[in-house]
Amino acid sequence: MELLNKSYIYALDPDGLILSLLYFVLLSGALAAVARKMKVPFSAKAIIALYLYYYLFFIFSAVMPIVPNFPDTGLFAGIITENYFPQHHGPGVRLFYYVTSPLRVLSLFKVELFILFQIFIFILTLMILWKSWEIVMRKNSLNPDSSAAIFLVLAALYPSFLLFVPVPLREFWVLFGFSVMVYGLVRHYYEDQALFDVGLGYTIVGSLILLTARPQLIVIVIIFLALFQKNRWLKYGLILASFFLIPYLYSTLNTFEFNPAFFRNVRNQAYTHFGSNQMTYGFVVWNTYFDILKDMPMLFLQFILSPFPILHSVNPLKLLAISIDMIYSVIIYFFALYAGLKLSKIYLFIFIVSAALFSIWEFHIGGAVRHRMPLLMILLPAASYGMVRFYHELRGK
Hints:
Elements: H1 14-38, H2 44-63, H3 72-82, H4 91-99, H5 101-106, H6 111-139, H7 148-157, H8 159-164, H9 171-190, H10 198-211, H11 218-227, H12 232-254, H13 260-274, H14 289-305, H15 320-338, H16 341-361, H17 365-371, H18 373-377, H19 380-396
Helix pairs in contact: 1-2, 1-6, 2-6, 6-9, 7-19, 9-10, 11-12, 14-16, 15-19
């Protein structure tokens, strides 16, 4: 194995590493203050330890060849350190360039400092997600603090978090937007009663953040804005309108046509182009939406269980890092269900709907692991409670 094999290794700077000590102290204090303000049940020591843990993993992953290399980290490192504008890349990458401009300035265009801001936003994401879980638990007259420590442990052990958060990628921004959107949906569903309320405001803000990283997710944004409306006429009106809005907005934001032929070509061209490395799956014959629906069950299972060989024949043992992620994911699925549908139903609903949609255009074994990360993330609070419940029931026998 070759040392220093990461695509972003050229961007690392000893001065940035030295400055990171000062930035870490300042941002740790800010995180502790934010935690107190949000009244989350995580101690300052636990939060700072998690912050340090992820930053040390950034240093570890940069120099250790056992951690997989992701080629697009080179692109994002260039955006961070050289202020490179990705003119020939998709709208999501260009939008990410604009929205992260303040972070690049604050980090002095040094990747070591930018990663500290990334992890800061990631931990803030976990806090926001936990606040949504507190709403659910209190609605069911349960103590939300009982599984807080387990939640942080799960966040520290999730392989995809370790692989994709402390490296130069936009995944941290996707997670942040998703957490704000989910918080808004949960609050709108359980607490706020008005047609236009605070929960809806959070949903819209989170959606906008999400779309600046991945504009193609406009599909799930419109669907959830429609399905979570309490006014019956508005709900059905939005659902009806979505049949026209989704194709139009998707095509406008992504410059691609929204139809079965487009999704068929995306998958089949990738299969032809990358087929030699066996990391793609699913050569399809899609001429109508019904053709997509027929393939949906297997695509869904492949997406949530990747790299398990459902639509491909690659030995998962050859893909050690993402196979560990699959095992972790199955454990989370089990305990999220064990928590009880009364508690986890809203998170499972968001997970299932999103995963079904994601699976339509996901063609890469490793990409599935990366792209399901925000969906699995929202199951962590429920899984942490499921583990606590399982433990107490086991002791009671």
